[in-house]
Amino acid sequence: MNQTRLVILGLAGGLLGLAALLVFPFVEFFLLAVLLAYPLRPLQRRFEDTVGPRLTAGGLVLAATTAIILPVLWLLRVIVDEVTTFLDDARSGEIDFTDLESRIADLTGEQIDILDWIQSLPQETNIGTVDGALGVFQTVTNLLIGLGLTVFLLYYFLKDADRFNRWLRATAPLPDRIYDDLRTELDDVIWAVIASHVLIAVAQGFVAGIGLLVLGVPNPVFWTIVMIFLAVLPIIGSFLVWGPAALYLFSIGQSLAGGALLVYGAIVVSFSDDFLRPIVIDRYTTTRLNPSAIIVGILGGVYLLGFIGIFFGPVIIGSLRAVLDVYRREYVDEGPGRSVTTDTTATDADETVPEESSPSDGGQPSGAGGE
């Protein structure tokens, strides 16, 4: 029996490793489907009894795809237009970098031609060459395949989530109580990460956008939307917009506004993350993840998993804490209590046993006679 079990477990482990190798090339898109399925599951449960699980899952996938793709396409179009307009203004002399170049020379002691550097970027990045075009084509092809896989997986994650949970509950070598505790803790960790990332990105983007609006940066609404997306990245997210915006203000001769934006971004915008994240985590979840653990998880997750690691890096660290919390509750905190209960039961049982057995019982304690 033990040998049979070892053979089955060995086969399961080997096949699990092969399955992981098959998923690994698309792990980012697999995890993206998991991430999208999480906030959509409550809607799936709400409407699947009325509409049906297949139609509900299909409608949610279509709505989510439309809600993501259309804004992204609009942002890309506006970014291309803004970059084109900026380059045209720089070439025509409407934007002058002389003041900014002199300030950089005073600080670093090196002369720099910003316009020449901007114009040399396409050559340095191979954009416009055959190799660059092939690289872009390969990247776009892989992206389309991955996004198609994400849509496919998202549909089945929504439709079959309950069935998979029942199978995992029956298959996992854990008592139902511990399985439910682990799932509750992991759910709480994932919601903590999603809530903190999304809400703080929106808040930080709006705070930075107010600075752009007040200090006269062009198109503040558009750049606010861009900062909301970028603010998911800790530390450097919104800086990728308000930093160049401050340099832009310097380049057009508005040194006071540029300096004010740098101070505002460095103090108000940057520290809003440290101020808001603990509040959001305490408000929307019962798991109080330390903000430092989230930052480490994000940076390590990006290094290990790419963009999707922004979300799943903190989830991995939070899941470790969740598992340790369940272990502590089950085997550390309740351990002494169990021992006391066991000892008390044994003592009570000893007190019910008579000191001398009756001969008619055949030397057995009362109530234990054989039939």
Question: Summarize this, please?
Answer:
With 371 residues, the chain is mainly α.
How would you describe what is shown here?
With 371 residues, the chain is mainly α. The chain folds into 2 domains: 26-171, no CATH class; 176-330. It has helices at residues 2-23, 27-51, 53-92, 98-108, 114-124, 130-159, 161-171, 176-214, 220-230, 239-251, 255-284, 291-305, 309-333, 335-352. Helix 2 runs parallel beside helix 6. The protein is elongated.
Give the overall silhouette: elongated
Strand content: under 5%
- Quaternary structure classification: single chain
Largest sheet: none
β-strand number? 0
Number of helical stretches of at least 4 residues: 14
Count of structural domains: 2
Overall SS class: mainly alpha
Distance between the termini: 34 Å
Element-level helix/strand string: HHHHHHHHHHHHHH
- Tell me, rounded to a whole number, the average pLDDT: 77
> Radius of gyration in whole Å, from Cα?
30 Å
Stretches where pLDDT is under 50 for at least 5 consecutive residues are 336-371
The percent range for helix content is over 70%
Task: Spell out the key features of this protein.
371 residues; mainly alpha; 2 domains; 14 helices; elongated
Give me the secondary-structure topology:
Elements (H helix, E strand, L loop, with lengths): L1 H22 L3 H25 L1 H40 L5 H11 L5 H11 L5 H30 L1 H11 L4 H39 L5 H11 L8 H13 L3 H30 L6 H15 L3 H25 L1 H18 L19
Helix pairs in contact: 2-3, 2-6, 3-6, 8-9, 8-11, 8-13, 9-10, 10-11, 12-13
